[in-house]
Amino acid sequence: MLPSKSAVSIFDPDQTRLPAVAYQLDFADHAEEVPVHRHRKGQLIIALHGAVTCTADGDIWIVPPNCGVWIPGGVPHSARATENARLNYLFVEPGAVRLPQECCTLAISPLIREMVDRLARERGDYPADGHAARLARVALDELAEMPRERFNLPVSSHPKIRAMADALTAQPSDRSTLSQWAKRVAMSERSLARLMVRETGLTFGRWRQQLHLVVALRELAGGVPVQTVAAALGYESVNAFITMFKKVMGSTPAQYFARGTAGAGS
């Protein structure tokens, strides 16, 4: 039988006023879908293995290697993890450190990764003047210095943009042009182009490329072969997919995930 216990039912970070507490979650033991919920504390999600896709603040976020998704306190969010996902959550008390007031992806150094992993082995009621408290303070100070990355897909609440996003998320290999999408949603091509930029900040071509990147990172981190991912995204060849990936990420998928593995083991 597949695991059905939701991840949000086993740990409530808001029961403590400590500046930071961490929790490790293996999705082999829990349902892959995490329903919409919110915390008083902010939440940093770090993927140790596999990948997780979060929906928050009207965007879809992917947690790739060497990065973490930051969700401020009070923001409703949901998540979907790959079957092999193992995550560390760092929950941060509001006001404990200066972190962004909006959802974002933060670069995660090997030092932060190791400190959060160590803190996840502590109980959620550790002494406020003990070793774990000092570790949490250093981790928060380091986290506040981390740069932002762009691993999100803007998704508007506008019904026409949402319909396109739902369709392309379900079938990312769909290569319909903007003109074809305009006919489907009963708009002129020019009006749809303007609406897309206004609602997402991206042209249709850049938005779809970002969708492909988000899907590719999630699937590759989940262990899906590059050839399979390229085909699922509608690329005519593996080389065409690798070229897109390298253009956006600065390295091939193999190089990118090799760096992520090395960083996780540092």
UniProtKB/TrEMBL annotation:
Pfam families membership: AraC_binding (PF02311), HTH_18 (PF12833)
Ranges where the HTH araC/xylS-type domain occurs: 162-259
Gene3D superfamilies named among the record's database cross-references: Homeodomain-like, Jelly Rolls
Record-linked SUPFAM superfamilies: Homeodomain-like, RmlC-like cupins
Swiss-Prot/TrEMBL keywords: DNA-binding, Repressor, Transcription, Transcription regulation
InterPro entries per UniProt: AraC-bd (IPR003313), Homeodomain-like_sf (IPR009057), HTH_AraC (IPR018060), RmlC-like_jellyroll (IPR014710), RmlC_Cupin_sf (IPR011051)
CDD domains tied to this protein: cupin_NimR-like_N (cd06124)
Entry keyword annotation includes Repressor: yes
MF terms in GO: DNA-binding transcription factor activity; sequence-specific DNA binding
PROSITE patterns linked: HTH_ARAC_FAMILY_2
Name assigned to this protein: AraC family transcriptional regulator
